[in-house]
Each structure stands twice: as C-alpha cells, then as structure tokens.
Amino acid sequence: MGRKKGLPEFEESAPDGFDPENPYKDPVAMVEMREHIVREKWIQIEKAKILREKVKWCYRVEGVNHYQKCRHLVQQYLDSTRGVGWGKDHRPISLHGEFNGG
C-alpha cells in the first residue's frame, strides 16, 4: 500500500500575513491561522493517545513491576498531556502545569 495520489499537502508553519494584534485585518489569514492551531492541537492530542496506549500495554505486560519498568512511559505521557486539549490555553499554569512541547 502506497500513498494515494492527490492527497492535499498542508503547510506545517503558521500562515504568512497573520497579525495577532489585529486578527480581523486579513480574514483569510485569520482562518488559516485557526486551522493551523486546530491541526497542531490534534497532533498533540493524538501523540498523547499513542503514549497512553503504550502505558496500558506496559502495565499489562510488566504486571507487578510496572512501577519501575513503565516509569519513563508514564512520565512521557504526563508531559505530553500538560496544557493539551481544548480550552486549556488560557488557564493558569498552576492548574495544568507547564507544557514542554512533547
């Protein structure tokens, strides 16, 4: 199975021309910026889901030794979930911790 031809290519960087001081100046750039932010959030959420599945698998495989054997996966998962999700952008850092970029 190869990649299907004709799939859209997405820009991975923020759109040019977006002015955060005056977001309504260029409506097209504002919509592109919103799509960029949503896409980045979905990527972070999916990375956290993958890590969660790895933690579940490690707990099942390691049994009683999961505290020592899965510690690194749990730490990665916790780091990936800090500040990720919808509506957590404007909450104080004391409530959800600081985001390290995962």
Automatic annotation (TrEMBL):
It is found in: Mitochondrion inner membrane. The keyword Manganese does not apply. It is a peripheral membrane protein. Its main location: mitochondrion. It comes from the Eukaryota. Keywords: Electron transport, Membrane, Mitochondrion, Mitochondrion inner membrane, Respiratory chain, Transport. GO terms for cellular component: mitochondrial inner membrane; respiratory chain complex I. Residues 1-25 are annotated as: Disordered. The keyword tRNA-binding does not apply. Transmembrane segments: none annotated. Belongs to the complex I NDUFB10 subunit family. This is Complex I subunit NDUFS6.
